[in-house]
C-alpha cells in the first residue's frame, strides 16, 4: 500500500483551499475527521507571474499523445517541454520560493530532465542529469533548502514545496465502458487514490497541473 500523507500534528501546511480539497477527497471520504490547514490564507501569499492570487491552475496541453517506453512506463514529450519552459519562466522570480515537479511515471521524469537540459536549467555529468548550480538550493526561513526537485510521486513522500507542477501524462483515445479494465487502461496510475493524494498535497502555495 502507498500511505496517504498528513503531518503529525494533523494539520496541512498549505493554503486552506488546497487543504480543504485534500481533506474532503482523500480523508473525509474515507470517514476520517476533517484536517485543517493550520494557517490563514494570507500566510500563503505569492505573486508568481501569471498565477497571482491563485492556488490552483490547469495547464492544458491538448496536442501530443502519450507513448510507452520499452520498460512499459508512459511519457509525453509535449507536456515535458511545457513544464520545462514554465519552470524557466518562474523559477527565479523570488529567490526563496521552492518548486517541485512530480509525475506518476519514471519515463516522464526522464523526459522532463531532457527538456530542462534543452532549456539550460540542467546539465549532464557522466550520464546523469543534475540541475545547474543556481537551482540546487536556496535560503528559506534562515535555512538552506532544496530549490527545485524533479521526480516520481515516490520521491516526494513527506516533502513540501511552495509550488508544485504535476505532470498527468495520460492522453489517449481509449473509450470508457462499464468494464473497469478500460478505466485502468485509460488512466493507469491516476486510478490509484493514495498516489494522487501524495501528488496533490506536496504544495503549500500553488499547484499547477499539466495535462490533456
What would you note in describing this structure?
The model has no long low-confidence stretch (mean pLDDT 92). Helix 2 (77-90) crosses helix 3 (106-118). The chain is of the alpha/beta class and 212 residues long. It starts with 15 loop residues before the first helix and ends with a strand. The strands form four sheets. A five-stranded parallel sheet has the order 1-11-10-4-9, covered by helices on one side. The protein is globular, with a radius of gyration of 17 Å. The protein has helices at 16-27, 77-90, 106-118, 180-187, 193-199; strands spanning 56-60, 67-68, 74-75, 99-103, 122-125, 128-131, 137-140, 143-146, 148-152, 161-167, 203-211.
Summarize this structure as a short list of keywords or feature phrases:
212 residues, 11 strands, five-stranded parallel β-sheet, two-stranded antiparallel ribbon, 25% helix, 5 helices, alpha/beta
Mean pLDDT: 92
Helix content: 25-40%
**What is the tally of beta strands?**
11
The structure class reads alpha/beta
Query: What would you call the shape?
Result: globular
> What assembly state would you assign to the polypeptide chains in this entry?
single chain
Describe the strand arrangement of the main beta sheet, using strand numbers.
1-11-10-4-9
Distance between the termini: 28 Å
Order of helices and strands: HEEEHEHEEEEEEHHE
Low-confidence stretches: none
User: How many whole angstroms does the radius of gyration measure?
Assistant: 17 Å
Tell me the β content: 15-25%
Number of helices: 5
Describe the biggest sheet? 5 strands, parallel
Amino acid at each position: 500500500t502507498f500511505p496517504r500523507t498528513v503531518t503529525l500534528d494533523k494539520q496541512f501546511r498549505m493554503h486552506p483551499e488546497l487543504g480543504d480539497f485534500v481533506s474532503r477527497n482523500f480523508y473525509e471520504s474515507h470517514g476520517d475527521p476533517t484536517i485543517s490547514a493550520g494557517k490563514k490564507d494570507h500566510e500563503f501569499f505569492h505573486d508568481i507571474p501569471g498565477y497571482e492570487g491563485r492556488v490552483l491552475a490547469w495547464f492544458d496541453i491538448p496536442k501530443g499523445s502519450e507513448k510507452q517506453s520499452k520498460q512499459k512506463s508512459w511519457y509525453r514529450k509535449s507536456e515535458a517541454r511545457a513544464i520545462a519552459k514554465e519552470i524557466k519562466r518562474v523559477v527565479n522570480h523570488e529567490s526563496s520560493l521552492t518548486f517541485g515537479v512530480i509525475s506518476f511515471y519514471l519515463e516522464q521524469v526522464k523526459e522532463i530532465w531532457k527538456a530542462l537540459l534543452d532549456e539550460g536549467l540542467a546539465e549532464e555529468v557522466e550520464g546523469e542529469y543534475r540541475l545547474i548550480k543556481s537551482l540546487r538550493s536556496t535560503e528559506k526561513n534562515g535555512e538552506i533548502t532544496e530549490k527545485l526537485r524533479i521526480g516520481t510521486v515516490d520521491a516526494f513522500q513527506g516533502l513540501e514545496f511552495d509550488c508544485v507542477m504535476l505532470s498527468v501524462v495520460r492522453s489517449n483515445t481509449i473509450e470508457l465502458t462499464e468494464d473497469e479494465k478500460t478505466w485502468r487502461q485509460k488512466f493507469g496510475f491516476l486510478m490509484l487514490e493514495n498516489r494522487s493524494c501524495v501528488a496533490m498535497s506536496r504544495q503549500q502555495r500553488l499547484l499547477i497541473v499539466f495535462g490533456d
